[in-house]
Automatic annotation (TrEMBL):
This is Aldo/keto reductase. The lineage of its organism: Bacteria, Pseudomonadati, Pseudomonadota, Gammaproteobacteria, Alteromonadales. Residues 6-88 form the NADP-dependent oxidoreductase domain. InterPro entries: NAD(P)_OxRdtase_dom_sf, NADP_OxRdtase_dom.
Length: 123
């Protein structure tokens, strides 16, 4: 629906009927954001933008400015990584689920998931 532009046709029809005044989109990738920018009536665009994800600066922001599309930065603190609460040594817990498959002649058995717990220390 996004890449075909069908959703934008619906939103523009809602605008013409007076059901909405403005609309925006929230996307994961710059490619999807560029597709959204093809709409003539998109008001805002929410994108992941922080010190680690800067690809919008060259690829998207000039187009958004030209088309007068407001940008809303999503995850500006990188899910807390840039919040200042992280210390030099941080303990993370990671849960990994592993499914193993055992093959036998003419028979395939799938064992129930095995759960492993790992502690990672970043220094």
């Amino acid at each position: 629906m996004l890449k075909t532009g069908e959703i934008f046709s619906w939103m523009e029809a809602f605008q013409q009927e007076g059901l909405i005044t403005h609309y925006g989109a929230s996307v994961e990738t710059i490619e999807d954001a560029l597709v959204c920018c093809q709409s003539n009536s998109l008001a805002t665009l929410q994108i992941i933008f922080n010190i680690f994800r800067q690809d919008a600066v060259e690829k998207l922001l000039p187009i958004a400015e030209q088309k007068n599309i407001g940008i809303i930065a999503r995850l500006p603190l990188a899910s807390g990584l840039l919040s200042g609460r992280m210390q030099k040594i941080v303990l993370f817990q990671l849960r990994i689920t592993v499914t193993t498959t055992v093959t036998a002649p003419h028979l395939m058995l799938v064992k129930p998931s095995m759960v492993c717990h790992l502690n990672l220390v970043l220094i």
